[in-house]
TrEMBL record:
<protein>
    <submittedName>
        <fullName>Heavy metal RND efflux outer membrane protein, CzcC family</fullName>
    </submittedName>
</protein>
<feature type="coiled-coil region">
    <location>
        <begin position="356"/>
        <end position="390"/>
    </location>
</feature>
<comment type="similarity">
    <text>Belongs to the outer membrane factor (OMF) (TC 1.B.17) family.</text>
</comment>
<dbReference type="GO" id="GO:0015562">
    <property type="term" value="F:efflux transmembrane transporter activity"/>
</dbReference>
<dbReference type="InterPro" id="IPR003423">
    <property type="entry name" value="OMP_efflux"/>
</dbReference>
<dbReference type="Pfam" id="PF02321">
    <property type="entry name" value="OEP"/>
</dbReference>
<keyword id="KW-0175">Coiled coil</keyword>
<dbReference type="InterPro" id="IPR010131">
    <property type="entry name" value="MdtP/NodT-like"/>
</dbReference>
Length: 445
């Protein structure tokens, strides 16, 4: 009887259980090299406008602002990892929904001494099931669901930030290209000044100090040009990194940054802070922590299991019983876990308040900085236009021999310097406007 019952139990275990198949995922160098040197075409083609972007990349066509944002969303490596984390959080929900398995125990005994005439082999079969999970199940599930929702919102916020970062990096590339053109013109002008002074020195028309000064200005201008060119190369590499593209890909961008001339009042910028995706996500994470704290209190109660033993003794008396087992909370009353969860909850509460306060300070600072740059730009643009007009008069004065060529070149350089200052300020202004949109969760038109 016992033998047959044991085999029946084993058969039930194998037929009832839904076993997953293990498949190893090994790091393969050839596969890694392929992924790091080629565009992930499969990921691109799976997205609505991914095929169009892929076609532009393969045909060396320029990408627009929307292409840049979409590409960052699809291929950015950080977002890929966060999508994996979302899958883990989703699996945690499934894990929280599982209920404990029943336990089956079996044992047998053989009479070996004493009055063993007409005795039988004894055996015992028991079925037990824990029932204390019923009290904590809903809290576990709710905590896992809230944690997933928080991570999903946090992913959305990070995706938005990365798309904006891609646009800022593309804007930096645009402005650095414009600045490099100005620096190239400036370098050519200083080269002409240096050649002119050098020629004048050979005719003993100027001093050696004048020649040295012209040479220093030319070399300084050359170093500035080379530094800016190096910075542009780094920004191009950074743009590829943000977009999730390999270094060997040729990338062209057709993107002229736009920025607003008028900002909303502070009160309006503050209004939407608590609806910012990362803050909503943190609020959900806090609610998940609240459930974990409640769960810690629930789990201080002892574990309870019910048992249904079936026994046969050596005299062939068979019994079927029912029992209950309860853990005695003598050494572990779950107080330490309760303290940990309460402290974590308090930390998250304080951090939530801190995020709101930090956001308000960031918004106020960014608005002030943007308005300051806008005022500077208004002045510099007006000054640049005046100097551009004056340069025409300097050009005519040089032709009429009222000023020498060096004076004309230096005035031309002054105009170039003003244009470079304007471009640098516009670059900062665009980045700050994006930062203000992120901080306030409000589109700045």
């Amino acid at each position: 009887m016992f033998k047959y019952a044991f085999f029946v139990m084993l058969a039930l275990v194998f037929f009832i259980s839904d076993c997953a198949e293990y498949k190893p995922l090994k790091i393969n160098n050839a596969q890694i090299n392929k992924k790091t040197s080629q565009i992930d075409k499969k990921a691109l083609e799976s997205m609505p406008n991914g095929k169009i972007i892929l076609s532009k990349l393969e045909n060396d066509e320029p990408l627009n602002e929307n292409d840049i944002a979409s590409l960052a969303l699809i291929l950015n490596h950080t977002l890929k990892i966060e999508r994996d984390n979302l899958q883990i959080a989703k699996a945690q929900i499934k894990n929280s929904q599982t209920i404990p398995n029943p336990s089956v125990s079996a044992d047998t005994g053989f009479p070996i001494a004493g009055n063993i005439l007409n005795t039988y082999n004894s055996y015992s079969i028991g079925l037990s099931y824990p029932i204390d999970w019923i009290f904590s199940h809903s809290a576990k599930v709710k905590s896992a669901v809230l944690e997933y929702e928080a991570k999903k919102l946090n992913y959305d916020f990070n995706a938005y930030q990365i798309m904006q970062d891609a646009k800022i990096t593309a804007a930096n590339v645009y402005y650095l290209e414009q600045i490099l053109k100005q620096l190239s013109d400036k370098l050519n002008l200083y080269k002409k000044i240096y050649d002119t002074v050098k020629n004048a020195y050979s005719k003993q028309l100027v001093l050696l100090s004048d020649l040295q000064l012209a040479k220093n200005e030319y070399e300084t201008s050359k170093l500035t040009y080379l530094d800016t060119k190096n910075l542009l190369d780094k920004q191009n590499d950074k743009l590829k990194e943000v977009l999730g593209l390999p270094l060997n890909v040729t990338l062209k961008v057709n993107f002229k940054p736009r920025y607003t001339s008028k900002l909303p009042p502070l009160k309006e910028l503050y209004k939407n802070i608590e609806n910012r995706l990362d803050i909503v996500a943190y609020r959900l994470a806090y609610q998940a922590q609240e459930e974990r704290t409640r769960l810690a209190f629930i789990q201080q109660f002892p574990r309870v299991s019910i048992n249904f033993p079936f026994n046969r003794d050596t005299s062939n008396v068979q019994t079927l019983g029912v029992g209950i087992s309860i853990d005695f909370p003598i050494f572990n009353t779950n107080k330490a876990q309760i303290d940990i969860q309460k402290a974590t909850r308090k930390k998250m509460y304080d951090e939530y308040i801190s995020r709101i306060i930090t956001a308000k300070f960031d918004i106020k600072r960014l608005k002030s900085d943007i308005e300051n740059i806008q005022n500077q730009l208004r002045f510099l643009n007006a000054d640049y236009e005046n100097n551009t007009d004056l340069l025409r008069y300097y050009n005519q004065a040089y032709r009429d021999n009222y000023i020498n060529i060096i004076e004309f070149y230096k005035n031309s350089n002054d105009v170039i310097d003003k244009k470079i200052n304007i471009l640098n300020l516009e670059k900062s202004l665009y980045s700050m406007q994006i930062a203000l949109e992120i901080a306030s969760a409000k589109k700045i038109n």
